[in-house]
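Teaching note: in complex prediction, the entire set of molecules is handled at once rather than each chain in isolation. The prompt given to students was simply: 'Predict the structure of this complex.' The entities are:
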Amino acid sequence: MSNESTYEQLSAAIVAGDQDRLLATIEDALGEGISPSDIIEKGMHPGMKEIGEKFARYEVYLPEMMMAAVAWEGAMKILEPKLLAAGTERKKIGRVVIGAAKGDIHSIGKNMVGAVLKMDGFEVFDLGIDVAASAFVAKAEEVSADIIAVSALMSTTMPQQKNIIEHLEARGIRNKYYVLVGGAATTQEWADSINADGYGRTAGDAASLALKVISEKKKGASK
Amino acid sequence: MISFEAVVERALTGPICSEQDFELQVFVPNLRRVVDKYAIKYDPENPVPADDELADRVWAAAMEFLIDTGVYCTDTERIIRFTNNEIEQALKGGPCGVVFGEGKDAKAMPRRLPEDKTPPWCSVGAGGSPVSSEWNLLNLVKAYAENSLGDSITTPSLTNVDGQTIVAGSPLGIEGAIRTVILAREGLRRAGRPGMPIVNGVATGVRSQEHIAGHRFGIGKTDALEIGTIHEMKVDFDSLNKVAYSLAAGNLIFAENGVILGGLSGGPAGTAVVTAAYNPVDLLILRGAVQHPFPTHFDIGTTSTRDTIWARSLANQAVTRNSPVPVVNIGYAGAGPMTKMIFYEFAAWVIGAVVSGGSIEVGGSARGIVVDHTSPVEPLFASEVAHAVAGMSRGEANGIVVALLEKYESQLRNPPTGQRYQECFDISTGTPSKEFIELYRQVRQEMTEQFGLKLQHASLYL
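The expected output is the structure of the full assembly:
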């Protein structure tokens, strides 16, 4: 089988969210001498790009995104040690701690953002729903995150987004993290009013915003 | 029907499953399988389908999906399962002619069928849209009750208590819920309809303790508390606690399901199936007298998109042809007050819902999130439209909805949020500005001249 054909199969397995097929194809590819780096960049990554584009066109939805992300993560468990051994570790674009604000039990929007961020190459630490401000801060410190992303669906849980910023300020570490807010109840005006670093109305907006702030960081901005 | 205690026992002892496995190994494959098996396909050309056989296939798919999938309890990480027999028994004994309200304002909730001439129940409110002052809330509720086609009211959400921002789960949440109920009762009294049922009086409250507190200050046995499932096919102890309290207190329950189109349910076909599958869940778990669905677009954030209208209309037809549990649809528009677009958006989904057997609750404006961007004029207009299309064929309704979509569809991504309540109303008298009345008159005229709708005059404003 040609390498091109293998890359197409890897991509197709990602698009289908079929982890078993992806792992079997990776095993075959490694057996054929294809490097882990090429498996990722020439096979799996185009699949992630394709599913992201389909999501933006409403051709696929959250399940396909989540399944692709799960398949990707399963594959990386096999490939990352090999990359490390070869000294070609794939660099993550950035680290994001994500969760729904304290009191908020809605996970769908947050999961969408998490899936899109993973596809864009971020390392995502999902704290789930109803997350205390201190838990966001502690996790961000633990994993040296770049971004804290907080969702709030209800007008009465939005204040908890502000609370996270106040916790960061109280510990003197506000400038270490970009705090991005989103969720059905939130607006740009709200984000501005609490001095958040950005607002994303949709999952796509959130990913673009995350890429933008990471790019700023790499250019030497304060965070 | 199996008891609520049996449901709770299943939540505590049912099969253990991680949440991600429930989503990706149980929910998604089961849904995909039934959507394929029953050949349910989205038809964007016909946002209001008129195919009874398709509607019945959606119902069959929904029941098979529910039996195979169950409902996930996030607090116990267990699945609550029901048998086909249990579902059928529950539906056989489902609510029939439940009376909401007191005295001269009391009325039985109708069970409607597709193309039914029975007037739909019209619940009037803001879909929980936020308001910044108690005065605005009081004025709004009074105006809702002055809508002569209104059968029940729901309240907006207060954003603050004496200037302090309300935080869910805090004492401010309790106080906000209490004030909302007290103000709603007062608004009904001022409108001369003290017995008009409140079907969601604690829109401000999220937690069970807030529901309980609000209830204690003015929710009666013929009012309802609104209790929702979690996206998708999930409940938690807090929602079950609300049910437990309501059963003990004896009030009625509006069982709410806001399926996210684009979320775990996937596209329009999956959204229609899951919305229908919630109907028995609303009876068995939430003990609802009414199913209160609002399939919402994940990206646009409204119920007025073409695909959500299709999913809602089809789910309504599936449910109302097969279940006795009445459907009162709630919806959200992208545009805000003092725009033509909001009238078009409400008219579109309301027409689809009503000719498909549903009743309505209107509704959230400016996606239900922009503070004070809500008014009583649009719910009034929606009530008039809902009554005008009762008995209309789905084919005719489809033509109107397609024409309405053409008027606003291109603006859905960036809809105009319009004006704040205090900008388009005189807040001292509670009346709309002359410009607002003129806009309302123009849109009514358009509905009559372009679509032949004979709108009743339910307004004090004209």
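Point out the following to students. Chain A has two domains: 3-85, 95-218. The radius of gyration of chain A is 18 Å.
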